[in-house]
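Handout, section B. The chain below has 313 residues.
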Amino acid sequence: MDVQVIKLYENRDDVTLTTYVLADSKEMLNGKARPAVLICPGGAYISCSDREAEPVAMAFAAMGYHAFVLRYSVYGEQVFATGFDKMEPKKECQFPMPMREIGQAMMTIKENAQNWHVDPDRIAICGFSAGAHNCAMYSVYWDKPEITDYFKKDKEVFRPAACILGYCLSDYLYMKENNTDKAFFDGSNMGFLGTKDPSDELLAKVSPALNVDANTPPTFLWATAEDNLVPVQHSIRMAHALADHHIPFEMHIFEEGPHGLAVSTQASAASRSQIYPDAAKWVPLADAWLSKRFAFDLPDMTDFERMMAEKAL
């Protein structure tokens, strides 16, 4: 496995793309390109969670996908020491920069596709919580001027083949009326939007469930009914919007489990309270869903298998 940490900005160490590129082998794909998954950890646009980074990349690598983890622009964990009330706007981490960094990561992967044996037409994006919101935003803006005009590139460079959203925040207007932790979301709004009191117009613009269109990619959603931080209604709202626009999607709502489960096994857990076997089923379910779109180009029988079969005769 080729593991590299690539800085997306020369003068910043906080925005990086970490590669988990599977080694090529003549016993497996023998030079053929693999599909890939680009992962965005959550963290309320204040931090990027380690629990939703490498453990998730390893899960997708075990399925046979190249994996990439994007640590996008966030406000910074120092806010937990200073307090949300002392936050000041930081333009470098505000909308639309985080989703533009998904576009920048997508370009980086495609520019290196030949060396990394990545199929550039089969790159999915996957996020959790705020990272899921970032992926959902990218899934509805990838072909819009906020991305294409900024990079001055053809929209096809940025097209995601699929989108996987874990306990996604999809509707900021709904959250405004139904949030359960005002101080926390005021801080998240300051980090992401530069204000604790954004206008309804801005909230609608950053609500992916309100901006789904015909070019939104097929989407896999999962969440838990017990999530008290990002209520399950966000996933339902996103699913409703996808259905309205006839976008293929699959959704799984697990009965039990708090917010932030990641892969919901000991691979990503800090305590037993973050292990829910039922919720952990999202990983094989996502694997099966992706396989319908990203089926590997495998022969019916390898040369080695054919040789051994002929010897047996």
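Note. The longest helix spans residues 97-111. Compare this with the example in section A.
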